[in-house]
């Protein structure tokens, strides 16, 4: 099985709770198999079974209360 | 009914999630009827039916992951 990894920059996260909020929303996107997120760097790395829709990731992060951009 | 209000200074909160975590733990203390907490100022104000045990409040804040001191 191949996987695809996509990186985003998230602004506004300040702590582990923020990371958890982003993780929870992004993990609900179909096909997502892995998430790495850091409040310290703002980096969000999403691993999926196949290329995921940037808009879906950005919308999920927005739902969590933060802003993401493909990096 | 009389109430008593006690103020604490909490260090380490950075966002609304942190405030919620503190609020959740402190609200579990018997007798607590009101909580005001601000990540911006670190101020935690606890209202209770009768004087509350500082140690209980400090322990609850510790449980949430932060440090409090009576102010």
UniProtKB/TrEMBL annotation, chains A, B:
One of its GO terms (molecular function) is metal ion binding. Pfam families: HMA (PF00403). InterPro entries: HMA_dom, HMA_dom_sf. Residues 4-69 form the HMA domain. Signal peptide: none annotated. This is Heavy-metal-associated domain-containing protein. It comes from Kocuria coralli.
């Amino acid at each position: 099985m191949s996987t695809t990894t996509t990186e985003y920059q998230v602004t506004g996260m300040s702590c582990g709770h923020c990371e958890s909020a982003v993780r929870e929303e992004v993990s609900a996107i179909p096909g997502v198999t892995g998430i790495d997120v850091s409040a310290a760097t703002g980096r969000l790395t999403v691993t999926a079974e196949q290329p995921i829709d940037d808009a879906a990731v950005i919308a999920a992060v927005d739902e969590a209360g933060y802003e993401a951009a493909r990096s």
